[in-house]
Amino acid sequence: MSDRQSDIDTAEKLPAGADHYRAFVGPPQRYGLLSLSQLALLFHLGLRDTDKVLDVGCGSLRLGRLLIPFLRPGGYHGIEPNSWLIEDGFKNELGESARQLKLPQFSHSADFDCTFFGTEFDFIVAQSIITHAGHRNTSRLFETVSASLTPTGIFALSFWPAAAGAALPEPDWTYPFNVGYDPAWLASLAERVGLDWRIIPWRHPGLTWAIAGKALPSAVSFADGEWLAR
Ligand SMILES: C[S@@+](CC[C@H](N)C(=O)[O-])C[C@H]1O[C@@H](n2cnc3c(N)ncnc32)[C@H](O)[C@@H]1O
After folding, report:
1. Which of 71, 74, 112, 193 has the fewest C-beta atoms under 10 angstroms from its C-beta?
2. What's the structural domain count of the chain?
3. pLDDT per residue over 155-208, tens digit each?
4. Phi and psi at residue 217, in whole multiples of 5°?
5. 73-96: per-residue pLDDT in tens?
6. Which has the closest alpha carbon to 80: 35, 54, 110?
7. Domain-located, residue 25
8. Is the CB of 56 under 6 A from ligand 1?
9. CATH classification of the domain holding 176
10. To test the ligand 1 pocket, which listed residue (21, 25, 94, 145) has its Cβ within 8 A of the most ligand atoms?
């Protein structure tokens, strides 16, 4: 067995949040599933290789290891304060040639600032980000997402639904424990920043997916393998 394979096997026994690029971002046994399911969701939402995509809290490139090769040069953008995760993602999953060929851009800001790149995005993804973000972080994220989406852009995020009327989480970041949001509070936050909001039936092993945008297409049902033509 190669050293790489044995490192991955060892990582699979670690708890979520442990100090390994595959475990820090969540249960390591789900690393593959959450790579593919995020890319498949973007496909169903109409992803094209010409799109500009922002991956908020991109971690060790669980999505990026598939999305960076697919997009054209300069298409992928990631925000990740823990820059070691990105470096380990390139080193262990994607390879340096992808960085040189596809010119992904990164911000290491912890300020939930999607305007950093000065680009409007066709997609902004935040997979298991507001599951750790306090209400101040989440409000800021929605505000800067709204300022950074194209008119037809889609914000796709996963969240942990709390009971109706549940108290808001603490204002700031919590990790690796999850925090939940009342879906009605998220819907009203989206409305406040000028975004339509819809919970979607896209499979996730522990969370719920939603999309938001300035003008969401009316039908996103995913029934019968349906996808959006953009
Ligand atoms: C549960 S992981 C999810 C990572 C990635 N989205 C994925 O699905 O693999 C949460 C990520 O958020 C990052 N993070 C921590 N503080 C952040 C901040 N202020 N803004 C954006 N991301 C942050 C963590 O370092 C971690 O990579």
Report:
1. 74
2. 1
3. 999 999 999 999 999 999 999 999 999 999 999 999 999 999 999 989 899 999
4. -60, 150
5. 999 999 999 999 999 999 999 999
6. 110
7. no
8. yes
9. 3.40.50.150
10. 25
Q: State the closest ligand 1 atom to the C-alpha of 38, by its place in the atom list counted from 1.
A: 8
The model carries a pTM of 0.96
In a domain, 81, yes or no: yes
**Distance between CA atoms of residues 144 and 43, nearest Å:** 24
Give yes or no for residue 59 CB within 6 A of ligand 1: yes
Domain, as residue range, for 147: 31-225
